[in-house]
Design goal:
Elements (H helix, E strand, L loop, with lengths): L23 E5 L25 H13 L4 E5 L9 H9 L6 E6 L4 H11 L3 E5 L5 H8 L5 H13 L4 E8 L8 H10 L3 E6 L11 H10 L3 E4 L9 E9 L2 E10 L12 E4 L4 E3 L8 E2 L1 H6 L2 H12 L16 H4 L2
Parallel strand pairs: 1-2, 1-10, 2-3, 3-4, 4-5, 5-6, 6-9
Antiparallel strand pairs: 7-8, 8-9, 10-11, 11-12
Bound molecules: S-adenosylmethionine and iron/sulfur cluster.
């Protein structure tokens, strides 16, 4: 950030060629992961490149904030594998212009981190949980994945008072498609939104469409009604009613129709990979490397590179027609 410069966001806002205002940065903190989810990192073995260091992250986010970014989601890989994760959240919290800090995690380290992260300023937490069956989870996500540990992490997050807590599930036919009702009731018990994501073609598994997910939910004891809630992202919501422990329970469900509902129309986001490359769209290979500029460029040059990357943002992804690198490499 430039000392004495304009107030954050007072410059020309970040806008893509379609006129969409870009206010949301998804920042990958590492390519590394202790899980090996089949749909995310098939065959992936090692870290890719050097991740940005904390001072670079602080500076990069400040430049984004000056250009109008208001929300940052930390992702990866598994962002909580970074030893400095709490400090990174504190840095972002202290960055003028940044209003919301969110994090997506596999939950492995959440039991110990839920409170420190909340105290550091994290407000929104998404925890991935695909199944309650320990063996199934191991087959899906590798030996590092432990259901009980993730459940304890979600319970810790529920007690830590996050304004927004979500349980994310990628729905795979004949793997976890029979657990959608249980996953919803579990999420609601923890004050969380249950979110169901259509499989994107990064790895193995057979997708289930949002329409079919909703039918399965009804079959699994969750009555659905429309709900107008909108967050920062592409999820569409429904209000659910079910019976849990003999009591009627209610909660929100989010659906991300990544493929069948092409969610790009109101895209407001930009991504930066762990190695510091800007990617205007999840479904595209165009990258603008920012790391060299962070080493030797000015803030103005970094901002110019960000704008140049966004000037190539396409109207929508074409994932259904193309093959892709792993999600773990792009940053989920
Ligand atoms: N490691 C963290 C986690 O698993 O939550 C953060 C990174 S992960 C790439 C972010 C999100 O992307 C997770 O909710 C994960 O389930 C989702 N994801 C990964 N591969 C996907 C795919 N092929 N289709 C849909 N969602 C996917
Ligand atoms: Fe790791 Fe998350 Fe990808 Fe699973 S989805 S391999 S936990 S980065």
């Amino acid at each position: 950030m430039t000392d004495g410069g304009p107030t954050p966001g007072s410059r020309t806002p970040l806008v893509d060629p379609q006129g969409r205002r870009i206010v949301y940065l998804r920042l990958s903190l590492t390519d590394r992961c202790n899980f090996r989810c089949s749909y995310c990192s098939p065959g992936l073995e090692t870290a890719h490149g050097d991740a940005l260091q904390r001072p670079d992250i602080r500076r990069l986010v400040a430049v984004f904030a000056e250009a109008g970014i208001r929300r940052v989601r930390l992702t990866g890989g598994e962002p909580t594998l970074r030893r400095d994760i709490v400090e990174i959240v504190s840095d972002l919290h202290a960055t003028p212009g940044i209003e919301e800090i969110a994090l997506t995690t596999n939950g492995h380290r959440l039991e110990e981190l839920a409170v420190p992260l909340r105290r550091a300023g994290l407000r929104q937490l998404n925890v991935s949980l695909d199944t309650f069956d320990g063996e199934r989870l191991e087959r899906l996500s590798g030996r590092g994945a432990d259901v009980e540990r993730i459940r304890r992490g979600i319970a810790a997050a529920a007690s830590a008072g996050y304004p927004s807590l979500k349980v994310n599930t990628v729905v795979l036919r004949d793997v976890n498609s029979g657990e959608l009702g249980d996953l919803s009731r579990f999420a609601w018990r923890h004050g969380a939104i249950a979110r169901f994501i259509e499989l994107m073609p990064f790895g193995g598994g057979e997708p289930v469409s949002v329409v079919e997910m909703q039918r399965l939910l009804e079959e699994q004891g969750v009555r659905l009604e429309p709900d107008a809630t909108r967050g920062w992202g592409p999820a569409r919501h429904m209000r659910g009613t079910s019976v849990d422990g003999g009591r009627e329970v209610h909660g929100l469900l989010g659906f991300i129709g990544a493929i069948t509902e092409n969610f790009c129309g109101d895209c407001n986001r930009v991504r930066v990979s762990a190695a510091g490359a800007l990617r205007a769209c999840l479904g595209g290979r165009d990258e603008v490397p920012l790391a060299p500029l962070l080493r030797s460029g000015t803030d103005e040059e970094i901002e110019a590179a960000i704008r140049e990357g966004l000037s190539r943002k396409r109207d929508r992804h074409h994932m259904e027609e193309e093959s892709f690198e792993t999600m773990v490499r792009i940053g989920g």
